[in-house]
Every structure is written in C-alpha cells, then in structure tokens.
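So, could you explain the following?
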Amino acid sequence: METLGATIKKLRIQIQKNEDYIAYLEKEITTRDNEIDILRTQCYICERENNQLQEGLAQEYEDEAERLQTTINEQRDRIDELGNEARNWYQRANQLQGCYNTVLNERD
C-alpha cells in the first residue's frame, strides 16, 4: 500500500499535468479566437466586394460575385466550426479545473 507521501507526490504530478493541459487549452482557445477574428474580417471584406459587384455590374462580374458569396459561406461555416471547437476546449478546461479543485479540496 502506498504511503501518504507517495500519494501526495503522485497527486502533485497529476495536478501539474492538468495545469499544463489547461494552459495549453487556453492558448488554443486564444488561437481559435484570433482565427475567428481574421475570418470575420475576411467575410466583411468579401461581403462588401460582393455588394459592390452586385450593384449593376455587367454579366462578366456576376460569376465573381457568386464566387465571393461561396467564399463568404465557407468562411462562415469555418467560423461556426472554430466556435464549436473553442467551446469544446473551454468545457474541457473547465472539467480539468473542476478535477483540480476536487483534488485540492480532498487534500485539505
């Protein structure tokens, strides 16, 4: 049977691993948020260009307008995916934080 000291050492190691993983998840969330901001800006630019093209331009520009709209739709889908992924990572970080708090409470 393990000694109390060995158990505490194992718990400390696990706590450090959890804290490192939480920090990693927080960094990933920040990265995803930055990607979302970039995609939103790109969507805005594409929408503006698309609106300009649709305002009475010749037939040759209608294809470009459709391409831009497709790009907008793809980027919006990507924003949704990144948002969902960020929420999942945030929930995982919260779960780990809850485990960390439980371990600390049990230790006290």
Observations:
- The two ends are 21 Å apart (CA to CA).
- The helical segments are 4-54, 59-107.
